User: Fold these one by one.
Assistant:
Number 1:
Amino acid sequence: MEKPRIDWIDLAKGICILLVMWWHVKELYSNRGFTDRSYVLYTANYFRMPLYFFLSGLFFKTYGGYVDFLIRKTNKLFVPFIVFAVLAVAYTLIWPDKLPALRTWQSFYPFVTIWFLWCLFLMNNLFYLVLHLSENNLPTLYVSIVLLGLFGFWSGRDYIEALHLRTALTALPYFVLGYAVRRHTAFLSARGKWWEWLTGAASFVILYYMTLRFGKAGIFYVHNEYHIPVWALYGGGILGIYGILVISRLLRRVPVVSYLGRYSIVVLITHYPLIYLFPKHWSRILFWGFGGWCAAEELLLLVCVEVPIIALCTHYLPWLFAQKDLIPLRRKE
């Protein structure tokens, strides 16, 4: 029997996937010679990916042992990753002119965002290993994770970018923070308080100030490349995670955004190639139609396209988008 969903978690994921889509729309314009005028998306860079890592840790389980755990993570993360990595070769051959300038990792999978699925698969296995080695000694576990995160941050850019091992290490503290919040608090079940509007807003004010302080600094988890100090990376990530979660908990549900969040894996995989299929002459019309402010019109268009795509993908290819299991789970004796 499927467990009831937590509406505000879907909303939080929906907000983040919208920010991911919006960033990639901005990337499209950057590749076509436009310059955006907003600091909003650069502020969101502090927490877009960390929130997903946090939410994954929030719902982490060891299940019935490592074999069961591995089968589940393979179904949910590795199967979509490997299938789209193969399909990406065909995409490259058919539409090479629709892609941005090739980078090392894009030459392997033009469905650029699937790097996250592999990184999250790797992160789950890393945490399972550390949890096992620490023998559930929490001080040892948490200190080890902090040290691994710092090592990942200071180890620099991933030279073999398809592996994303250093990124997984850098982002592991967010994952374990989610695990710790669920283990030690009642945050998931607690109802939002009115004053959380104030604390949530304050977190974003501080984040925006940090963006002004460090400028439009690059925060690239995909490369494990960060142009800000380590305290700003993790501090900004935690502030943004808190702000999104408390506001989502207060709002509970926003229909279309929550729907995108519920099926965020479909949106994650499909939105990037869709952006680059848009005719190039649309960029100038749409971009300047919003005064050069990151083209919210194209984001809206992308959302409208994604809604029916979600319905089609989850109905006809559920195993490919983590809605059903391709590899059957072992039956309990």
Note: The CA atoms of residues 220 and 226 lie 6 Å apart.
Number 2:
Amino acid sequence: MKKRIIAILMLLAAAAALVACSRAAAEENSGTEIIGRFVRGENAYLIVDEKDGTPVSMTASGLDKDVFDSYSTGDRIRVVCSLIAETYPAQTDISHIELLEEGKPGDVPAEAMSKLRELGWIK
């Protein structure tokens, strides 16, 4: 009888662990969403997060090599990305990009543009 109870408890613990792992994997696969303004840099493509004005340098290793060609500085975009490296500017690899509305350079926060200019990311 004790063996059956222990076996049942072990099965329940294993089931709970599987549920926890699958939830963590689902959260990881869903990625992080950033909405902000696109900036075409000297040798990089950036998004300036509209929540806090943080610039994030983007790569798109899993997408077409010309994925950024149709976007202009100031366009409001939504990206889905994986981990964000906490450098300045931050860096990430995106898995999805979507135009929300066309914009102009003046739509990008001036403070972010100034910082990027100081660092040589834009002219």
Note: The two ends are 76 Å apart (CA to CA).
Number 3:
Amino acid sequence: MTTASCDHDQRKIDNIELRYGNAVFKVFFRKPIASRKHDILYHLHHFYELHFCLGGSYVYTLENKEVTLSQSQMLIIPPGVNHSSLKFHTSDNYIGFVFQFSLQRSNDSYDFFDYFKDTLDTSAQKAILLPMPLIQQFAELSTMEAPRNLKSYCNITATTYTLLFEMFDAINNYSSHIDMLSLEQDPENMLFKLNGLVNLHELSLKHIAAELNYSERHAARLIKQIYNSSLTEIYKENMKIDQYLMQKNEKGNHQDE
């Protein structure tokens, strides 16, 4: 395990190694960015790159689609995905930072690799809403200087270890410890749009998530919180109601005859 300060490329904490069973992370942080002064041309990485937004908004181009990142949101860019960003797509009040890591499988008997890998891959390339306090804690961590002694190294490693787990927990278990609706930028508009999509009856969760610019996990949790039912359960209940009304109509028509 090595650590170093790399001011030439804005890195503050370099190559912190974390192990969760057989899942091995090597973590890198960069300084918070107050604004984009230059265009970032198409490029790719061989590691995961996470963008966090503390304020304002920012537009990323990933392969052939655009994703807008707003306050309290995170974007996961997987290894091998071409991406770029243009400075004129950045709001004047944009504040964000980047968190990078590689993920590898080891031979440890505790098999957690698939949990982390599946979460990353299913939540990637979409704006993911996170609790603002969690993003702020990541931001504080990203401003720390590279550790200069054993004590500071242990402190940074322990903090990173905890925050990384909390991030995955937040992605997978929002409704268990946070009111997702309270984190929406425009909850009334979002509710109106979601209700319209759900009432179309035939849309898949994937389609609804795309319309809301959320991951499928995020959309599913939001639907569960608002309707207290899964999308499948809602559709089944709506089908029962439709069948009942249809039978009632047919019975009324027979009586009229």
Note: Strands lie at 11-20, 23-30, 40-43, 48-55, 57-62, 65-70, 73-77, 83-85, 95-105, 127-129.
